[in-house]
Amino acid sequence: MRIDILTLFPGMFPGYLNESILKRAQEAGLVEFHLHNIRDYATGKHRVTDEPPFGGGGGMILKPGPIFRAVEAIKPADEACPVILLTPQGRPFTQTVAQELAQQERLILICGRYEGVDERVRQHLVTDEISIGDYVLTGGELAALVVVDAVTRLLPGALGAAGAAETDSYATGLLEGPHYTKPADFRGWQVPDVVRSGHAANLARWRREGALRRTWERRPDLLETAVLSEADKRFLQSLAEE
Ligand code: ADE
Question: What is the pLDDT of residues 22-36, one digit of tens each?
C-alpha cells in the first residue's frame, strides 16, 4: 500500500512513522509513506497557502489551488484512489472504516488547518472526509497519523503475532477482556488459576466471558451489534442478574 500525506507541516510526521510497527511495516515493504508539503504547490513570491474567508468571519481558509495542484502532481488523472480530507466534519473513523481503507492499494490524505479548506476542495477533489472524534484539533495531522496507524497494522504481516488484529477490541465487536503476563504473583496480587492452567477450552471461555463482561460494563451499546452465541447470551443474562 502507498499512502501520500499532504500537509503544511511534514516535519510533524517522521518521528511517529519511523518507529515500531509502522517502521517495520515500511522495512518489510508492506507500506510506503510519502509526505508532501502543500506549500511547495503554492505560487508567488510568498507561496501563500491560506487567505481570509470571502465575506469576513475571521480565521484563515486554505486556498484551493495549492491543494489541487499537489493532488494532481502525485496522482495520475485516471487513477481512482480515495482522496481523504481529515476534518471534524467528516464521517466518524471506526475499526470498520480502517478495515475498508486497508483494502486499498493507495490512499491520499489531506490535512486541513486553520478554520478549514475552501469548499471547492470538498466538492471537486476529495472523495471522502473523515473525523477521528467529536473534538477539534489544531489541524488534520494527528488525525492522519491515527488513520495511518490503524490502517497499517491491519495490513497482512504488519503485526508480529499472527492473528493479533483479529482479536482486537472492536474487530470482534467486543472490548477485549483482561490480559496477564509474568510474574504470576505481583505484590500479592495473583494471576487467576484458569489463565495459568493451560486448559485451552476453559481459557477460551474465560476470555470470552471477560470480553463480554468488560463490554457490558463499559460499552453496552456494542452488544447490540456484536455476534453472540447462545452461551454468550446466557452469560450476559447472568451478569444482569448479579
Ligand atoms: N481536524 C481537526 N479536528 C479533527 C478531527 N477531530 N478529526 C479529523 N480532522 C480534524
Answer: 999 999 999 999 999
In this structure, the answer to whether residues 185 and 140 fall within a common structural domain is no
**Does 37 share its domain with 106?**
yes
How far is Cα 85 from Cα 68, in angstroms, rounded to an integer?
A: 12
| Mean pLDDT value across the chain | 95
CB of 133 shorter than 6 A to ligand 1: yes
Beta strands in 125-181 (DSSP E): 128-131
Which of 43-47, 142-146, 158-162 has the weakest average pLDDT? 158-162
- CA gap 98, 110 in Å, rounded: 16
Q: How far apart are the first and last CA of the chain?
A: 48
Domain housing 76: 2-152
DSSP state of 200: H
Instruction: Judge if 177 and 148 occupy the same domain.
Output: no
Give residue 160's pLDDT. 78
161 within a domain of the structure (yes/no): no
Residue 220 placed within a domain? yes
* Residue of 5, 86, 110, 114 to mutate, ligand 1, most atoms within 8 A of C-beta: 86
Task: Say whether both 37 and 140 belong to one domain.
Answer: yes
